[in-house]
Specification:
Elements (H helix, E strand, L loop, with lengths): L1 H18 L2 H26 L10 H35 L2 H6 L4 H7 L9 H16 L5 H27 L10 H9 L11 H10 L7 H7 L5 H28 L6
Length: 261
């Protein structure tokens, strides 16, 4: 409850900041619509030359694009703005103030900046998922929808954990400014189903750097390709990812020397 109140407060503060720059928000929304049109055009061109891509049809790729947009929205809403603030705080020593607060430093680093206007992508992504599933003709059941929602949450936790690990490296290498660029490059692999990649790369993006857990795996749940054991395995991967990331963050904090050192 304490964390929910804090998130609510930080959200209100960021809304006030966003309202101060309404024209910027409008321009960025229009740019997003343009990019969405470009992505849909790309899919249309691909499927004008083939019926399937890695065994997936146009509708399923459309649903995958919707899930990818949810992950991308999380990156643009939380990860990018807070990474920039975090890197700056390490260089100028203002991270001291974050550590001294009576709240988890990882929590504050995560939610201090929220790019409010990017949240409009969420309903767009949900519409894409619905249209994609309907067009694919896949039969969904209450259980497959439940697994789908659980795996989306798991995917968000995995991506969040990867981000925490990436920015924690900044405690060791102060000039490690390209931390999120690396994460974004990894995430781009989730734009397409893992079946388009060679087997060795499928193993990497599913289990070693589990980007596919955030994108391909939830759609496979909707297609009823995953059973209960596999779903619980990915839930386990998400929990393990978060625990490992938390420990790496704590070790990184011990390396942080502060502005006064």
């Amino acid at each position: 409850m304490h964390f929910l109140k804090l998130i609510s407060t930080l959200f209100k503060v960021n809304v006030q900041m966003a309202v101060a720059y309404r024209a910027d928000a409008l321009i960025n929304i229009l740019l997003n619509m343009m990019w969405l049109g470009w992505e849909l055009l790309g899919l249309s061109i691909i499927f004008s030359n083939t019926n399937t891509l890695g065994g997936w049809g146009f509708g399923e790729l459309l649903a995958l694009l919707g899930i990818f947009k949810i992950v991308h929205t999380m990156m643009m809403t939380l990860v990018w703005p807070n990474t920039e603030k975090f890197n700056q705080s390490i260089r100028d020593g203002s991270m001291d103030y974050t550590i001294l607060q009576p709240v988890s430093s990882m929590f504050l680093v995560t939610f201090s900046r929220i790019n409010i206007w990017r949240l409009w992508d969420i309903p767009v992504a949900i519409i894409l998922i619905f249209i994609g599933i309907n067009r694919a003709g896949d039969v969904t059941t209450p259980l497959s929808i439940l697994y789908f929602l659980l795996l989306i949450v798991c995917g968000a936790i995995v991506i969040y954990s990867l981000w925490i690990v990436m920015i924690a490296f900044t405690f060791y290498f102060t000039k490690f400014d390209n931390n999120v660029t690396l994460l974004q490059a990894l995430l781009d692999a989730g734009r397409y189903p893992v079946s388009v990649y060679p087997p060795w790369l499928q193993v990497i993006v599913t289990f070693i750097i589990p980007v596919a857990v955030a994108t391909t795996i939830p759609v496979r749940a909707l297609r009823q390709e995953l059973g209960t054991p596999q779903t619980f395995m990915f839930i386990g991967i998400a929990i393990a990812s978060f625990l490992v990331a938390s420990q790496i963050w704590k070790f990184g904090l011990k390396k942080y020397s502060g502005a006064s050192s």
